[in-house]
Structures are given as C-alpha cells and as structure tokens.
C-alpha cells in the first residue's frame, strides 16, 4: 500500500509537464537540480532558528528594551474564584449580559464586580510589552537579513528584470547555491513560526496567520520540487520587503518613538499596497498564469501552484482592507483631536496615537491623553470587538 501511495505521490504528471520525467532532472555534467530530499534540511534549520531567536531575544532584544526603558505594565490580579475561572477557561472570556446575571446569582457578586473580574482576568493573559518588543525585534531582524540576502542573490539574474526569463529552459533549470540557501532559510523560518505559535503573542488574525504560514510552506515545497525556483525567489523577495517596515514600526512604537513609528507605518502601507496588491497579482501571478503556456501545456502542478498563489492573494486583500480601515480611523481620529476646544502641541501634552498591528494588520487601538497643570484627562477608544477599554 505504501508503495502505491509513493508511486501516486511522485507521479510525474503531478509535478512535471508532459514529456518530462524525473530522469531528465538527474544531476549530470555539473548541473545540479532541486530534489524533494533537500527540503528535509528545513527542519534542522527551523530548530536552529528557534535557538538563534532565543539567544537574540535574551542577549540583544532584552538589553535593548532596558536601554529604551520598555517595561511591562503592572496589572491587577483577580480575586480567586473557581466558578468564574472555570467559566473563563471552558466557556467564554467575555460573558454575555445574560451570563453575567447568571453568574451573579451563583456567586452573589454584583454585575459590576463580575465584569471587572473578567476584564482583569483577560488582561492577565495578555502578553507584556517586553515580550511583544522582543518578538517584533526578532522578526524585523530576520526579514531584513532575508531581504538583503535575496536582493544580493537576485540582482544579477536576468529573470528579475524580464519575467519571461523565469521560464527559459524550464523545467531543466539547474539549481544555484544562492537559491538553495534562500529557500532553506525562508522555509526554516516559517516552520519555526508554526512551532512557536503556542508561546508566541496570539493576535487577532491568528487563524489567518496559520493559513498564511501553511500556504507559504506548501507553495515553497511544491515550487522547489517542481523546479519553480526562479519565480519562488521573486515571491519571497516581494513579501519580505514590506514585512521589514511593519515589524520595525512596531519596534519603535513599543520604544515610544511614536513619530518614527508612524512614519514607518505610512511607508509600510505604501510598500504593502504596491508590492502585494499591484506587483504580486499583476506581475508575478500573471507571469505564472500566462508565460508558461508558451513552453508547455497546462498540467496539475501548473493549476495547483497558481491556486496557492491566489490563496496568498486573498490574504493580501484581507490584510489590505484592515490596513486601509486603520488608516481611515487614523485620519479621522486626528481630525477629531484637532477639533478639540483645547489645542496643545504634541510635545507639551504627551499625545500618543498609534496602531497596534498584528503581522499584516489587526483592529485599531487608538488613544490619546491631554495633561495640563494638575489636571489629567484621558480619552479612550474601545476595541471594536470586545468593547474593552484600552489601558
């Protein structure tokens, strides 16, 4: 049975065009071709990534957080209550009004006390600022390194400037060492992200992140085995260029460099829209849909690869919608602040305005504070989903 499954899995018509077999891709005359066995290197690379991340966060990011004065906010602990704790863990973290009344009867507590308990209990599970800073610093460092490496590996390649060159001689295109290490580096990183999901900061777009990482790994694996390596390297470079700015903006935001963070977020928005909403679909997907037909008839791998690219594009559209909504709220929040009866310079009143973004976007958190003399006034915008105060 295993033999049958293996034969079906490696059936040439699934991976290669008509009239091309695996024997045509055997190493010969100094030409080395990509093989499925090469992908096993991604797992030890992922484990090395986790080790490097641990060392980076402990010996670089944490001391940097100390230098910038980044501290976790002290949060009040909840009163011990086994009934409420059991409800929180097994049913819902934010009970409905009817459930609050029911819990009031069971605990003899007031509704206000129940609501305060659940709000504090949710706050206890939220990751601290230092953890967010360390995670964003690690991702920013990796994306920067990967993008620079990809740019160095691609700058002298003809298919970077003429996409038709992507398919010249396909599938008998020999593998370059730079392509091998670029793939293993990226795949190791995404495998490490999947392995660390359980202890990473859990964001609002958690499910979308799992889909994104899984689709990315599937796409990279398939493109490697089918020798779609040239287009694969271009896809990776397009994705990395905007991720650097996003993670960098979060790093500066956590360090309270708000003007720098806001400026980087604006640049990130422009780069994201250009790279993933324009270049990715109208250049790269067009390259994989149209140009291959000049060289061979469609086969399963052709359709599968393009479907996976479309899955990524749907995620890009979803994140672009979230980012656009955040920019919209940013603009109109700024307008409302500017129309306040009391006008202060930002340096004098400690204006704080920033978006907490998860990877490629999540609902906006926006707050500002105005302090003058002995008076302190704080305005807070509630989270659109939980209606919790942002503190």
UniProtKB/TrEMBL annotation:
<feature type="transmembrane region" description="Helical">
    <location>
        <begin position="136"/>
        <end position="155"/>
    </location>
</feature>
<dbReference type="InterPro" id="IPR016439">
    <property type="entry name" value="Lag1/Lac1-like"/>
</dbReference>
<keyword id="KW-1133">Transmembrane helix</keyword>
<dbReference type="GO" id="GO:0003677">
    <property type="term" value="F:DNA binding"/>
</dbReference>
<dbReference type="GO" id="GO:0046513">
    <property type="term" value="P:ceramide biosynthetic process"/>
</dbReference>
<dbReference type="GO" id="GO:0005634">
    <property type="term" value="C:nucleus"/>
</dbReference>
<dbReference type="GO" id="GO:0005789">
    <property type="term" value="C:endoplasmic reticulum membrane"/>
</dbReference>
<dbReference type="InterPro" id="IPR006634">
    <property type="entry name" value="TLC-dom"/>
</dbReference>
<keyword id="KW-0371">Homeobox</keyword>
<dbReference type="GO" id="GO:0050291">
    <property type="term" value="F:sphingosine N-acyltransferase activity"/>
</dbReference>
<keyword id="KW-0808">Transferase</keyword>
<feature type="domain" description="Homeobox">
    <location>
        <begin position="71"/>
        <end position="128"/>
    </location>
</feature>
<feature type="DNA-binding region" description="Homeobox">
    <location>
        <begin position="73"/>
        <end position="129"/>
    </location>
</feature>
<feature type="transmembrane region" description="Helical">
    <location>
        <begin position="180"/>
        <end position="199"/>
    </location>
</feature>
<comment type="pathway">
    <text>Lipid metabolism; sphingolipid metabolism.</text>
</comment>
<dbReference type="Pfam" id="PF03798">
    <property type="entry name" value="TRAM_LAG1_CLN8"/>
</dbReference>
<keyword id="KW-0238">DNA-binding</keyword>
<feature type="transmembrane region" description="Helical">
    <location>
        <begin position="38"/>
        <end position="56"/>
    </location>
</feature>
<feature type="domain" description="TLC">
    <location>
        <begin position="131"/>
        <end position="332"/>
    </location>
</feature>
<feature type="transmembrane region" description="Helical">
    <location>
        <begin position="303"/>
        <end position="323"/>
    </location>
</feature>
<protein>
    <submittedName>
        <fullName>Ceramide synthase 3b</fullName>
    </submittedName>
</protein>
<keyword id="KW-0539">Nucleus</keyword>
<feature type="transmembrane region" description="Helical">
    <location>
        <begin position="263"/>
        <end position="283"/>
    </location>
</feature>
<keyword id="KW-0256">Endoplasmic reticulum</keyword>
<dbReference type="InterPro" id="IPR009057">
    <property type="entry name" value="Homeodomain-like_sf"/>
</dbReference>
<dbReference type="Pfam" id="PF00046">
    <property type="entry name" value="Homeodomain"/>
</dbReference>
<keyword id="KW-0812">Transmembrane</keyword>
<keyword id="KW-0444">Lipid biosynthesis</keyword>
<dbReference type="InterPro" id="IPR001356">
    <property type="entry name" value="HD"/>
</dbReference>
<comment type="pathway">
    <text>Sphingolipid metabolism.</text>
</comment>
<comment type="function">
    <text>Sequence-specific transcription factor which is part of a developmental regulatory system that provides cells with specific positional identities on the anterior-posterior axis.</text>
</comment>
<keyword id="KW-0443">Lipid metabolism</keyword>
<keyword id="KW-0472">Membrane</keyword>
């Amino acid at each position: 049975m295993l033999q049958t499954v293996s034969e079906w899995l490696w059936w040439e018509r699934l991976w290669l065009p008509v009239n091309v077999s695996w024997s045509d891709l055997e190493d010969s005359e100094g030409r080395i071709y990509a093989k499925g066995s090469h992908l096993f290197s991604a797992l030890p690379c992922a484990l090395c990534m986790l080790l490097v991340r641990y060392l980076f966060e402990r010996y670089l990011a944490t001391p940097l957080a100390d230098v910038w004065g980044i501290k976790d906010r002290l949060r009040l602990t909840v009163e011990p209550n086994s009934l409420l704790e059991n409800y929180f863990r097994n049913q819902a973290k934010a009970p409905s009004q009817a459930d609050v009344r029911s819990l009031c009867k069971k605990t003899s507590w007031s509704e206000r006390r129940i609501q305060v308990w659940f709000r504090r209990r949710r706050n206890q599970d939220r990751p601290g600022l230092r953890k967010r800073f360390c995670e964003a610093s690690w991702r920013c460092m990796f994306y920067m390194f990967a993008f620079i490496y990809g740019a160095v590996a691609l700058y002298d390649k003809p298919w970077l400037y003429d996409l038709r060159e992507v398919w010249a001689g396909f599938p008998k295109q020999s593998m370059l060492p730079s392509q091998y290490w670029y793939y293993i580096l990226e795949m190791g990183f995404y495998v490490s992200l999947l392995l660390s999901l359980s202890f990473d900061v859990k964001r609002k777009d958690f499910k979308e992140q799992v889909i994104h990482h899984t689709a990315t790994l599937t796409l990279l694996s398939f493109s490697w085995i089918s020798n779609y390596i040239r287009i694969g390297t271009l896809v990776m470079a397009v994705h990395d260029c905007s991720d650097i700015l996003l993670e960098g903006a979060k790093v500066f935001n956590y360090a309270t460099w708000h003007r720098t963070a806001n400026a980087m977020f604006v640049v990130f928005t422009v780069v994201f829209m250009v790279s993933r909403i324009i270049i990715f679909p109208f250049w790269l997907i067009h390259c994989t849909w149209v140009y291959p037909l000049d060289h061979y008839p469609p086969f399963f791998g052709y359709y599968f690869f393009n479907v996976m690219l479309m899955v990524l594009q749907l995620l890009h559209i979803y994140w672009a919608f979230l980012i656009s909504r955040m920019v919209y709220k940013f603009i109109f929040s700024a307008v409302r602040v500017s129309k306040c009866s009391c006008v202060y310079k930002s340096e004098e009143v400690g204006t704080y305005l920033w978006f907490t973004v998860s990877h490629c976007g999540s609902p906006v958190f926006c707050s500002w504070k105005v302090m003058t003399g002995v008076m302190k006034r704080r305005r807070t915008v509630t989270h659109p989903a939980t209606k919790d105060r942002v503190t």
